[in-house]
């Protein structure tokens, strides 16, 4: 590598390539950036609050609110107030949203398989562990 910062270059290239691949595969599904992550989270935890979406996806509240509003208009999700606490808005998938979420999950699984072509299961695990270690190091600066 000809860079003074090979780790930085490698990480940026990886993130850029992966984001571009996912965005390209999401476009035909009619999704805006980030909506795939919301669909996947709701596929795992349907009927959760917008605040839990904010925390689990590590984005700000206005981003979630805007995305959820767009997704309601598209018929992907619906919202209702919690019966326990009327201040809490719960988000759940519609039938159309659930169908699309399973398509998104398939795209993500295929993308992961393609990203790790030629890697053994052990190498894949080592790669994940190394990235987690780097993330830990950066978060504890």
UniProtKB/TrEMBL annotation:
SMART domains: HTH_MARR. One of its GO terms (molecular function) is DNA-binding transcription factor activity. Keywords: DNA-binding, Transcription, Transcription regulation. The keyword Cytoplasm does not apply. The keyword DNA-binding applies. InterPro entries: HTH_MarR-typ (IPR000835), Tscrpt_reg_MarR-type_CS (IPR023187), WH-like_DNA-bd_sf (IPR036388), WH_DNA-bd_sf (IPR036390). It comes from the Bacteria. Residues 1-136 form the HTH marR-type domain. This is Transcriptional regulator.
């Amino acid at each position: 590598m000809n860079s003074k910062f090979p780790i930085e270059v490698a990480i940026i290239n990886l993130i850029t390539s992966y984001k571009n691949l996912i965005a390209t595969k999401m476009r035909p599904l009619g999704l805006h950036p980030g909506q795939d992550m919301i669909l996947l989270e709701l596929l795992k935890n349907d009927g959760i609050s917008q605040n839990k979406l904010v925390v689990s996806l590590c984005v700000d509240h206005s981003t979630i609110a805007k995305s959820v509003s767009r997704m309601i208009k598209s018929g992907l999700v619906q919202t209702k107030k919690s019966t326990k606490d009327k201040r809490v808005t719960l988000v759940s998938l519609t039938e159309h949203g659930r169908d699309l979420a399973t398509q998104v999950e398939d795209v993500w699984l295929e993308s992961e398989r393609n990203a790790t072509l030629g890697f053994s299961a052990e190498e894949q695990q080592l790669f994940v562990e190394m990235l987690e270690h780097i993330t830990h190091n950066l978060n504890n600066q």
